[in-house]
Amino acid sequence: xxxxxxxxxxxxxxxxxxxxxxxxxxxxxxxxxxxxxxxxxxxxxxxxxxxxxxxxxxxxxxxxxxxxxxxxxxxxxxxxxxxxxxxxxxxxxxxxxxxxxxxxxxxxxxxxxxxxxxxxxxxxxxxxxxxxxxxxxxxxxxxxxxxxxxxxxxxxxxxxxxxxxxxxxxxxxxxxxxxxxxxxxxxxxxxxxxxxxxxxxxxxxxxxxxxxxxxxxxxxxxxxxxxxxxxxxxxxxxxxxxxxxxxxxxxxxxxxxxxxxxxxxxxxxxxxxxxxxxxxxxxxxxxxxxxxxxxxxxxxxxxxxxxxxxxxxxxxxxxxxxxxxxxxxxxxxxxxxxxxxxxxxxxxxxxxxxxxxxxxxxxxxxxxxxxxxxxxxxxxxxxxxxxxxxxxx
Length: 393
Ligand SMILES: *Cc1c(COP(=O)(O)O)cnc(C)c1O
Prior knowledge:
By secondary structure, this protein is of the alpha/beta class. Helix content is about 40%, strand content about 15%. Keywords: Aminotransferase, Pyridoxal phosphate, Transferase.
């Protein structure tokens, strides 16, 4: 009976760091800046739209690709924000697929497009579900590290990571956890490599509306990319309803059909009453999106100042919910060790980034002193956390 219970492809993927750190927050009563969810809900009128949808009987299976109104709203949203970049609309009937959050979109896309043994090149540190889903698909993960202080993309490293076995690039911009927003130059270089090596690309753009410095440019708008790119977004991050789990994919009809094939056997459909509400949310005026980014920028600034005052090295993020720090100035050298002690030391929970890096000496060296803090919290909470952290030195 020597065979382990857990499928060997999932070796090393026991429990996520978020479970461990959130449990620590619960038992110690510490302020949880570990997991990335807002502590206030999104727009009231959108919440009310869910209540209305429940009462109006949107309570059975929605159509497989998502309700038409939501698919239309997704296509309109892309035109409104990115139409000026490439002028090409997505067809709501064939080029849009609603998913159970971005998480299912990532899983369905990787399971659909990766064959056992295919290499998938991804930016390190990784969002944790990438490693798990690449493994479930039988793919081989190849990391390209983003390094502090700038986390700029090293194009030579990306080029060197591509081999004849590479099938797909997995991109994430704005990037969790570093807060890096890929520039047009970086994206152009990625696009050239993808075209040259005939690679598919999955691009996770869930933080598309949370850019504080610079501009979010969808990779699919670059020359040669529309036909090879699966773009993933999420209502959870854009409208502060992370528990609703409504995400979507935009891609060519062929790519959407491929992703739909796996998606239909993962969940089939989900979120009936949330879908009409998200359609309405996507049509909110520009002022909503501007206000949301401005609000989150202010929160970033509060936490960045607090962390600097506490003596950490702070890498100011250009986007997302997160700020990456280096704990070395506080006399620590291992982020995991630091995060396990932090609740007791000062009543704050954070997440060690080394768990988002490969288990190689080179990657671990970069990741070891890095710790991520979330700032998608009320300002009073961020200020209280900053005061507590200030007691560390
Ligand atoms: C939160 C997050 C997701 C998951 O989004 P859901 O819509 O909640 O499934 C995917 N990618 C990144 C980078 C994220 O931060």
